[in-house]
Write a structure and sequence with these properties.
Neuraminidase; 383 residues; single chain; globular
Length: 383
């Protein structure tokens, strides 16, 4: 009995020691300092973009810029099923120079060439394409061709009155628009004249010259002899468009109604607008004058709020931007900073104004991320 009592007391003592040790540990943990919370905010740092990329740099597809460790990973860009194929004018200095080419996002480095189409500017949407070309003989002449995006067969062709500049097709494939320089050859001066036409892609007939549209500002009709229009971009319903109006050295964003043959000025200092697929933003180049030089800063306008966002691209870009999706734009940049090469590259930039742009397609100009009103119809058209 004495032996059993001693064993019982020993067990009790051991249990007491274990309980005491446990209570000591709990108390110690309760007095430990709290973990430091991560810094507030998830803004990405603004990155300075170099004037040129290293010669051995590889084209980069539409990957988001890697954020800082404290920032959450941004979501992948939302891609519509109808915009996997990208058309462009090939600018590599070889036998394919100037030809229409295309690739898809799964194989961005693999270009497919359309040997029958040689263009200065090209655009494809809704199963249709438009090619603005130059025939540089003894006298240079210019031409526009409408073609099927699946067979690349030209359906209509007609002469142009000047140097090709911009081109677009509506998402339903029914309308085309283009701008040419009737006089002059660039937007960096004021001594030029443009012509911008709307075309029926089915017949090739001219539907309207923007010069014939009524223009209003704050409800009042205005008309000047120096009106110039360029950079048409269609609304998703193909009933309207946005474009640039230039007058008296100023450049305005106008919104047009095709049926009413009317335009309304809605914003200042906008050139070569491009409407986003969701119709919420307009991307454009904003004119700046620095040291008596004309430069352009890429901008995005929120149509509902009127807020402007300057993109992180630091170079002066003279192009009409193209939307890859609702959050990323594409644009062309000369391959050589001193313009010593005819080659250009297509770059991609997020519209957040913070993340750095990246090289997207080498030896490319005039990109078109193909879309259709009906994705099935777009697939049927081979786009």
């Amino acid at each position: 009995m004495v032996k059993q009592t001693r064993i019982f007391l020993a067990i009790c003592a051991g249990s007491a020691l274990l309980v005491g040790a446990y209570l000591f540990q709990v108390k110690r943990q309760s007095q430990a300092p709290a973990a430091v919370a991560p810094p507030a905010g998830n803004e990405l740092p603004t990155t300075q973009v170099p004037d040129t990329m290293p010669a051995d740099s590889e084209p980069v597809a539409a990957e988001p810029v890697t954020p800082t460790p404290s920032a959450p990973q941004p979501a992948e860009p939302r891609m519509a099923a109808a915009s996997q194929r990208i058309f462009f004018r090939y600018t590599g200095v070889d036998s394919h120079y100037g030809k229409v080419a295309w690739n898809d996002r799964a194989h961005p480095k693999q270009a497919h060439f359309v040997d029958t189409l040689n263009c200065e500017v090209v655009y494809v949407a809704g199963g249709h394409g438009i090619c603005l070309s130059a025939d540089r003989g003894v006298f240079t002449t210019y031409n526009a061709s409408l073609f099927d995006a699946k067979t690349f067969k030209v359906s209509n062709s007609f002469p142009l009155k000047g140097i090709p500049s911009r081109a677009r097709i509506s998402i339903d494939g029914t309308l085309a628009a283009f701008t040419v320089f009737v006089t002059g050859h660039g937007y960096s001066t004021l001594d030029f004249s443009t012509q911008s036409l709307l075309i029926d892609t089915g017949t090739g007939a001219t539907l309207a010259d923007l010069e014939d549209f009524e223009v209003r500002r704050d409800g009042t009709v205005i008309k000047e002899t120096d009106f110039n229009f360029w950079g048409v971009t269609f609304t998703p319903d193909a009933r309207g468009f946005f474009a640039t109006l230039s007058t008296a050295g100023q450049h305005f964003l106008v919104r047009g109604d095709i049926a009413a043959r009317r335009m309304e000025i809605i914003h200042e200092n906008v050139e070569c607008p491009s409407l986003s697929p969701d119709a919420r933003h307009v991307a454009y180049k904003k004119r700046l004058k620095i040291d008596n030089r004309i430069l352009w800063q890429l901008q995005v306008l929120e149509l509902q709020s009127g807020r402007e966002i300057a993109l992180s691209e630091r170079r002066s870009i003279d192009d009409q931007l193209e939307w890859l999706d609702d959050r990323h734009v594409l644009y062309s940049v000369p391959a050589a900073a001193d313009d010593s090469s005819p080659s250009t590259n297509v770059w991609i930039a997020p519209i957040d104004g913070k993340s750095a742009p990246r090289l997207f397609i080498e030896n490319a100009y005039s990109p078109a991320a193909v879309r259709c009103k009906d994705p099935a119809a777009c697939a049927a058209a081979g786009s």
